[in-house]
Amino acid sequence: MARHSDAFVTHLQTLASRNRGAMAALRHSLSFELGEDPRVYSYVERFTGIGTRVDAPRRLALYAVAGLFAHHSTIASQSFASALGELAAGRESASIEQRFIALLETDAESVVIHLRHALSLLVSEEIGFDYATLLDDLSLLLGHWNDDQAMSKVKQTWARDYYQSALAEGGIDSDPAAFVAYLEKLVTQRDRSSLATLRRSLSFAPGDLPAAYPIVEPFVAPGWSIRDSRRCARYLVAGIVALNPRVSEHQSFAAALGRVAHQRESGNIEGRFIALLGADAENVADYLRHSARLMASTEVAFNPARLLTDLSTWLNPRVDPAWLDRIRQRWARDFYQPTQTKSHPESQETPTKEA
Q1: Within the chain, what is the greatest distance between any pair of CA atoms?
Q2: Measuring CA to CA, how many Å separate 323 from each of 82, 175, 210, 252, 312?
Q3: Contact 284/315 with Cβ under 8 angstroms?
Q4: Are the CB atoms for 259 and 233 separated by under 8 Å?
Q5: CA 240 to CA 296: how far, in whole Å?
Q6: Architecture of domain 176-348 in CATH?
Q7: pLDDT of 1 higher than 90
Q8: Are 29 and 66 in contact, with CB atoms under 8 Å apart?
Q9: Residue 75, SS3?
């Protein structure tokens, strides 16, 4: 779609330079349902294609972008989300981030309304962005029947662009220790809202819940893609810590789960653990969520830093199988030796308060 999108944006630029009436009509067209203002058909329909359905996402995206461009015709190479992040960095305003998260959480019915509100902020600072990329993204987001995975990819890409831009001046700390320390701080300070959001994130694939982005993205390095195992591991560990807020440097997650199995004398937990060990990068998060929930009602602590390190490897589909086997073997040893932590008195653990 790239060449078609570029051609359409070039067409809009030509209209902007030659036809003020067209720009006025396109601006007004956003007051209608997308593609339902007859006055702008002549400017857009030539790009929709023969036989295109009136409710086709690509057609709706063309009308949306035409209307938005008429409101703000400044073009730059960065994405819309990056432009909004640039604005947030300059203003240091929490309201911009809140608007951005609301944009990511909205549905196809109202996404253009949220975009228009966000666009008004960019107009005041004359910050431009790439309309062709926005057109391609909206062609996915405006579809009621589109692939959920593709739509999630668009929203997560927007999130990465926004936070890399908003936190470009030293606001990102990808050190695992810093991230774990922040999670512990959320627990000790009883940040109920953040912890509730992180617990809810366990019902989604790692990184799929927009409400969790303000909590986790400041600890994701700029060069990591949306499916980078280190990024996914941070979201998964954050949810598990929010669900099981007791931490200990002396006991791994597998050892903690083994202790719970020993206390309950439950073969069911052992069966789930065996299934967890057999999981690969595609489904280990699902098995881990189930295991974490088994521990949620206990007072057993675990080491989130060690879990983060292990998951950063386990969630990588291209990892050397030998490295993954070493992790699995260590987890098996830890699980079946749940009493090993007795050499570390309970007082040496770092308990955190339940939120």
Answers
A1: 80
A2: 36, 22, 32, 18, 12
A3: yes
A4: no
A5: 9
A6: Orthogonal Bundle (1.10)
A7: no
A8: yes
A9: strand
End-to-end CA distance of the chain: 48
pLDDT given at position 338: 55
Alpha-carbon torsion angle 141, 238, 290, 203, nearest 10: -20
Alpha helices, DSSP H, located in the chain: 2-18, 20-29, 41-44, 57-71, 80-91, 94-105, 111-125, 131-141, 148-166, 176-188, 192-201, 213-216, 229-243, 253-264, 267-277, 284-295, 304-314, 321-335
Which of 1.10.520.40, 3.20.20.70, 3.40.50.300, 3.40.50.720 would CATH assign to domain 2-166?
Answer: 1.10.520.40
- pLDDT at residue number 263: 87
Residue 133, Cβ density class (10 Å: 0-12 exposed, 13-18 middle, ≥19 buried): buried
Residue 301: name the closest of 256, 269, 263 by CA.
Answer: 256
- Look at the pTM and tell me if it is higher than 0.70: yes
**CATH 1.10.520.40 residue ranges for the chain:** 2-166, 176-348
| pLDDT at res. 351 | 36
Q: What is the DSSP letter of 339?
A: G
